[in-house]
Design brief:
Length: 254
């Protein structure tokens, strides 16, 4: 098992440069890969969606702290809400420690007369859905069932997972949400102006990426200023602690 580490300046720039051209699914794995360089990317891709996102929240906590500032606009009156989320509370009981070497767990559910054994969807499954069916939820659910249901029976007879009825797929989806609640994080919001309440999805990968992109651009500006002032190379500048870089920048600006 390999432990997650905070990202150095060089790792932030690497993840930002690589991730800029990637799909958000791949970008999430790139950020985790930068924090877990000893774990093969293929292993990270087998984490369930909830386990992956819990580790992204743990990385965010390690990198920037547990408090996540957020905002939303009320869909009824347009009022802007500002709030602070807690990374620890968001990831709940989901595993967020070292990435295990063990294979994915399997689960069982009885749904509409069908007995199903399944594993949880992971990044590979989501990528297949995006590549194959795009934004069609019904087709996406059927493809996930085909990929994640390991066995399906009815009255003792085997059934093709791709032929499961909608009611059985709904039961499968509910069971998946029970065992991997962090896979679909929803925020309960209420507008202080009009008292309208609603739920908004929260994507840990998108949130962390936005912050890393800001940090990467800040680092590049610092590198540019110090290289121009002193003629130092980028690796030497990144090797300085943030405090020493900041002091040198103050000298340059002064």
């Amino acid at each position: 098992m390999a432990a997650m580490r905070a990202l150095s300046g060089a790792a932030i720039l690497w993840a930002w440069e690589v991730g800029a051209a990637q799909h958000p699914l791949d970008r999430a794995l790139t950020m985790l890969g930068a924090a877990c360089p000893d774990v093969p990317r293929e292993r990270l891709a087998t984490l369930s969606v909830g386990e992956r996102d819990a580790r992204l929240l743990a990385l965010r906590e390690r990198q920037f702290g547990a408090a996540l500032p957020g905002y939303a606009e009320c869909p009824r009156c347009g009022e802007r809400l500002e709030f602070t989320l807690d990374a620890v509370a968001l990831r709940g009981d989901a595993p967020a420690g070292p990435v295990p070497d063990a294979p994915a767990r399997t689960y069982d559910v009885a749904a509409e007369g069908y007995e199903l054994r399944f594993r949880l969807p992971d990044s590979r499954d989501l990528a297949a859905v995006v590549a194959t069916v795009g934004g069609d939820p019904a087709a996406g659910g059927r493809l996930l069932a085909r990929r994640c249901v390991l066995s399906a029976t009815r009255d003792g007879a085997a059934v093709d997972p791709g032929e499961l009825p909608e009611a059985a797929l709904d039961g499968l989806s509910r069971r998946m949400a029970e065992v991997d609640p962090g896979a679909d994080l929803l925020l309960d919001l209420r507008c202080p102006a009009c008292d309208h309440g609603w739920q908004a999805p929260f994507d840990p990968g998108a949130f962390l990426w936005a912050e890393l992109a800001v940090q990467a651009r800040r680092l590049l500006r610092e590198i540019h200023a110090l290289a121009r002032a002193y003629g130092w190379r980028e690796p030497d500048i990144l090797a300085l602690s943030p405090w020493r870089r900041r002091y040198y920048l103050e000298l340059v600006d002064g």
